[in-house]
Amino acid sequence: MTDGGIDTRPSRPATLHDVAREAGVSLATASRSINGSTRKVNDEFRERVLQAAARLDYSPNVPAQAMARGTTTTVALLVADIADPYFSSIAAGVVAEADAARLIVTMTATDRDAERELEFVRALRGQRPRVMILAGSRPTADSAESALGHELRAYERAGGVVVLIGRNELGLRTVLVDNAGGAVALARALTGIGYRRFGVLTGSEGLLAEVDRLDGFRAGLEAGGGSLRDDDVVRTAFTRDGGYDGMRRLLSRGLDGIELVFAASDIMAVGALSAIRDAGLTPGADVAVAGFDDIPTARDVTPPLTTVRVPLEALGRRALRLALGNSDAAARAVATEVVLRESTPART
Amino acid sequence: MTDGGIDTRPSRPATLHDVAREAGVSLATASRSINGSTRKVNDEFRERVLQAAARLDYSPNVPAQAMARGTTTTVALLVADIADPYFSSIAAGVVAEADAARLIVTMTATDRDAERELEFVRALRGQRPRVMILAGSRPTADSAESALGHELRAYERAGGVVVLIGRNELGLRTVLVDNAGGAVALARALTGIGYRRFGVLTGSEGLLAEVDRLDGFRAGLEAGGGSLRDDDVVRTAFTRDGGYDGMRRLLSRGLDGIELVFAASDIMAVGALSAIRDAGLTPGADVAVAGFDDIPTARDVTPPLTTVRVPLEALGRRALRLALGNSDAAARAVATEVVLRESTPART
DNA sequence: TACAACTCAGGCAGCGCTTTCCCACAGGTC
DNA sequence: GACCTGTGGGAAAGCGCTGCCTGAGTTGTA
Q1: DSSP assignments along A5-40, one per residue
Q2: Do domains A16-60 and A179-311+331-339 have the same CATH topology?
Q3: Which of A23, B69, B113, B168 could cross-link with A52 by S-S, CB 3.0 to 4.6 Å?
Q4: Which residues constitute the signal peptide according to the record (chains A, B) (predicted)?
Q5: In this structure, are strands A288-290 and A260-263 parallel, antiparallel, or unpaired?
Q6: Closest approach of chain A CAs to the CA of B231, in angstroms?
Q7: Cα dihedral across residues B155, B156, B160, B164: positive or negative
């Protein structure tokens, strides 16, 4: 870490006070020059201040500014799992939008643990973020629920704004995905290309997304003339391995006429594809598969996966816009779009 | 947003002062009770303070604490692209480790733009984070380089610590990946199962990772008796589409005896697989493909991709540990591991 | 009884910044 | 020339918290 002749002793960072002294002006003038207030500052003074700041490598102390101004420039984002493409895409959207608003994003993972989520909300509240965004659907009712609600309400009462993504509770601002509509459209598209007998892999936690997708799919089948028997609905974990296991269960029990398996998320569908292949069958040809979300991988598996595109990054952007008071972001659920690919070849 | 009978007027959040008054103790005692200092506090007093805090929904103002204490609890993380599994995995590691150290992570994306990176470093410096982590290799030399170095050095001089992931410049702390070693091992493994004639898809930006992987692969081939002609090395974008294009170039030019194409990253390899398939060939059988990184998708494509595993999350954890002064994290480059899968069937 | 030695609550001075408020001065008007 | 108005720099009061310092009260010892 040595640096030649340059002085590397840890010295305290330059303060505005230092800059003011160096420029030979008052603290107030220095402040006004650097961050530009409503007040005007003589050009020559400003120039002097700016040069002094550059000379001292001055960088305004954000916490101090926050305190003096009584407001921060922070957005807190709470997701279930950062490495999950679903959430990292949302995060990318939030960050991009925050960027445009010159806000900075702090990010934390709950690991899908309601206890941790509560704990983090509590801790994050202390940061006095302007906005708190919670992504990731959770079971509709649980013990930590009321505590979470209490915490979030206290935060809002103190002037914060919270936005929920993909869940609708507690009377808070929400960005919803049109899961039901997408599932309806998917079912109709599939019946439209000749499928009649279906199976479903869905989660077992009662998440909002799970329920809406299954209900929507059912409704769409009804409209399109497809059929789904209750015991062809397999409940399993909402993960790749869950999809694999669920599909295996279906296969070992005997497909019994099922032509297409709808997995309630793409990662489950990916697991299902592997299970089909491991059983010696060819996905698409022997049994078709469709998913939901359109994660990037969906294009890259073989056969490419039919799915419903959820504009994840847009979801993140919209959440922040909504928080910042952009009312058109408050519109109805984010639209989804059916994407037919080779995992569901047309049946003629 | 209405709330029944409860008062929802935005009121200023409770301060420690309020809590102290409510509990009938001094500010100092309230502070000591809530955050626990070296000083002891009478149990009864503490209890009273804690209850008052709960009653008022008190949440300590972190920026104010930061200022009073003269130190924050923030880690700033700068990555190229949050939605990229490579970076989101690293981020997950950083966040997990930060969590353990009760630090919170702020995250920003540079979009692979050196200008933006510089701008962000400047802005982040103002947050006075304890640690700054920059992930994502960049061309070794460019115009913004010296400015970036200046900024980072100023930050370190003021007591911060910066860690670079996957790049080694400016004499800063670094977490390095053993790209060369992994590539050597991969080449030997591939020659070991019978491959002799190779092609390579690599990036065109001169990134450290690109260079090391290619050099290592060459060295491994030499040792293992494989051959790689200079004009069988295709330089293209370090992305999925770059991989697709590069492979197509190779195919349309004629494979000319190439048995296996090594793509310098998994996403490029995924693109290459698609290109091969689109050309009517079967990846694995007609031409083998290997990648690098072992992103989750690598298992899910068909055929599953042979690659070199880079423990991305561990990389993130290690970066933070290193920053926090855990010296064993300063050890040598993070080891990588060859993972042979069906995209490179043994040639007998 | 007197005094030393502790213990621990409370007072208060900052931390680095923004933002009134005050005031000096320049320019304009009658 | 007296007065008003507008402009813009500087002094100073906080923002919410921590941590040093003071000093009151308690216990122990001679």
Answers
A1: TS-----PPP-HHHHHHHHTS-HHHHHHHHH--SS-
A2: no
A3: A23
A4: none
A5: parallel
A6: 28
A7: positive
Q: Does pLDDT of A38 surpass 80?
A: no
Separation of A133 CA and D20 C1' (Å) = 40
Helix/strand/coil for B245? helix
User: For chain B, how far is it from start to end, CA to CA, in angstroms?
Assistant: 69
Separation between Cα atoms, residue A44 and residue A56, nearest integer Å: 19
Closest listed residue to residue B189, CA positions, set B335, B307, B42: B307
DSSP string, A84-142: SHHHHHHHHHHHHHHHHTT-EEEEEE-TT-HHHHHHHHHHHHTT--SEEEEES---S--
- Among B residues 138-167, those touching chain A with beta carbons less than 8 Å apart: 150, 153-154, 156-159
Residues 6+ apart with CB under 8 A from B75: B94, B98, B103, B104, B105, B106, B129, B130, B131, B132, B133, B320, B323
What pairing do the DSSP bridges indicate for beta strands B173-175 and A161-165? unpaired
Whether B297 sits inside 8 A of A296 (CB atoms) is yes
Question: DSSP letters of B124-157?
Answer: HHHT--SEEEEES---S--THHHHHHHHHHHHHH
B34 in contact with nucleic chain D (CB within 7 A): yes
Q: Tell how strand A337-339 and strand B74-79 pair up.
A: unpaired
Q: Are A177 and A167 in contact (CB under 8 A)?
A: no
* CATH entry, A179-311+331-339, from 3.40.605.10, 2.60.40.10, 3.40.50.2300, 3.40.50.300: 3.40.50.2300
Q: Estimate in Å the CA A43 to C1' C29 gap, whole number.
A: 29
DSSP code for A328: G
Q: Is B328 exposed, middle or buried (0-12, 13-18, 19+ CB in 10 A)?
A: exposed
Phi and psi at residue A308, to the nearest 5° = -120, 120
CATH number of A16-60: 1.10.260.40
- Asked if strand C comes closer than 7 Å to A150 Cβ, the answer is no
Domain residue spans of chain B: 16-60, 72-175, 179-309+334-339
Measured in angstroms, the CA of B223 and the nearest CA of chain A are apart by: 34
Q: Are A237 and A210 in contact (CB under 8 A)?
A: no
Under DSSP, is residue A281 helix (H, G, I), strand (E, B) or coil? coil
pTM, two decimals, is 0.87
Superfamily of chain region A73-174: Response regulator (3.40.50.2300)
Q: Which of B224, B228, B237 is nearest to B192 (CA)?
A: B224
Q: Chain A, 69-98: which CBs lie within 7 Å of strand D?
A: 70
How many contacts (CB atoms, under 8 Å) link A and B? Answer: 182
3-state secondary structure of A219: helix
Q: What is the pLDDT along chain B (348 residues), one digit of tens a residue?
A: 444 444 445 578 899 999 999 999 999 999 999 987 777 778 888 888 999 999 999 999 999 999 999 999 999 999 988 888 889 999 999 999 999 999 999 988 888 888 888 889 999 999 999 999 999 766 555 545 688 888 999 999 888 999 999 877 777 899 999 999 999 999 999 999 999 999 999 998 777 888 999 999 999 999 999 999 999 999 999 888 999 999 999 999 999 899 999 999 999 999 999 999 999 999 999 999 999 999 888 988 889 999 999 999 999 999 999 999 876 666 678 999 999 999 999 987
- CB within 8 A of A179, min separation 6: which ones? A208, A209, A212, A213, A216, A292, A336
Identify whether A303 is preceded by a cis peptide bond (ω within 30 of 0). Answer: yes
CA A88 vs. chain centroid, Å, equals 6
Q: How far apart (Å, rounded) are the C-alpha atoms in residues B45 and B29?
A: 8
**What gap in Å lies between CA A291 and CA A339, rounded to an integer?**
10
Q: What's the CA angle centered on B322, arms B63 and A116, to 5 degrees?
A: 50
